[in-house]
Design the sequence.
C-alpha cells in the first residue's frame, strides 16, 4: 500500500511540473533549452520569485542580440551567508570547445555558468546603481524589446515586493545606464557587457523571418508573451 501512495505522490508532482511548463510559468532555471523555450518570457518577468520581507532577490538580463550573447545574472540572499550570484551566458556554441559524453560539464545550448558570492556591501553597490538608473520606478510607458537588438531587463524583490524594469537600445535611458559598469567587475565572469550597436544586417535580412526574430513588450509588471501569447521562439535549441 505504501508503494502505491508513493507512486501517486510522484505522479502528482510530475503533473504539477508539467502543468507549470504548459502554463509557461518560470521555474527559475532556464538552462535546459526545452524549459527555456516554454518559460523564457515568464523568467524575464521574474514570475518565479517568491518575495519575503527582508530578503533580496535580483535578476538582470542583458540581451546583446539573441543567439549571439545573452547574459542572465541571478542574485539570491541567504541570511548570515551572503548573496549567491549565478551568471549564465547563452551564445552560439563554439564546437571546437564542446565536450560530448557522459562527463561533459556543459552541453550545447545550456549556457556557460559561473558563480560567486557577494557581500552586503557589494550588493548595496549594485542596488544603489540600479536606483540611480530608475530601476525601482514603474515603467511610464511600454518598452519594445527586440531579440535582434540590445536591451536590459531587471526584476527583483525589494521590501517584500516584486519589481520590474527594462531599457532598450537605442534610447536615452539605455545610453545613460550606469549600473552595467558597476555590475561587470562584480559579476561571476568579471567581463564587461557587450557594447550596443545598430543592426548590422543588410536589407532584406533585417526583416523578421526566423524564430530568433521576436519582440517582447515590457510593462511595469513584466513582459508580454507569458502564457504563450505570443509564444516564445519556437526553436527548441535556443542559444
Sequence:
Amino acid at each position: 500500500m505504501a508503494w502505491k501512495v508513493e507512486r501517486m505522490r510522484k505522479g502528482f508532482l510530475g503533473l504539477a511540473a508539467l502543468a507549470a511548463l504548459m502554463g509557461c510559468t518560470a521555474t527559475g532555471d532556464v538552462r535546459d533549452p526545452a524549459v527555456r523555450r516554454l518559460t523564457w518570457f515568464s523568467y524575464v518577468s521574474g514570475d518565479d520569485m517568491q518575495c519575503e520581507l527582508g530578503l533580496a532577490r535580483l535578476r538582470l538580463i542583458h540581451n546583446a542580440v539573441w543567439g549571439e550573447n545573452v547574459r542572465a545574472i541571478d542574485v539570491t540572499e541567504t541570511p548570515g551567508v551572503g548573496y549567491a550570484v549565478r551568471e549564465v551566458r547563452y551564445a552560439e556554441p563554439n564546437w571546437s570547445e564542446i565536450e560530448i559524453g557522459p562527463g561533459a560539464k556543459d552541453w550545447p545550448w545550456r549556457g556557460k555558468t559561473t558563480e560567486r558570492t557577494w557581500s552586503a556591501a557589494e550588493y548595496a553597490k549594485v542596488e544603489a546603481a540600479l536606483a540611480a538608473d530608475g530601476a525601482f520606478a514603474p515603467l511610464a510607458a511600454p518598452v519594445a524589446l527586440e531579440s535582434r537588438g540590445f536591451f536590459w531587463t531587471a526584476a527583483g524583490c525589494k521590501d517584500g515586493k516584486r519589481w520590474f524594469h527594462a531599457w532598450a537600445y537605442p534610447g536615452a535611458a539605455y545610453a545613460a545606464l550606469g549600473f552595467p559598469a558597476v555590475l561587470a567587475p562584480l559579476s561571476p565572469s568579471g567581463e564587461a557587457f557587450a557594447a550596443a550597436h545598430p543592426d548590422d544586417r543588410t536589407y532584406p535580412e533585417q526583416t523578421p523571418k526566423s524564430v530568433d526574430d521576436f519582440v517582447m513588450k515590457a510593462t511595469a509588471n513584466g513582459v508580454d508573451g507569458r502564457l504563450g501569447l505570443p509564444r516564445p521562439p519556437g526553436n527548441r535549441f535556443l542559444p
About this structure: The chain has one domain: 2-228. The mean pLDDT is 78.
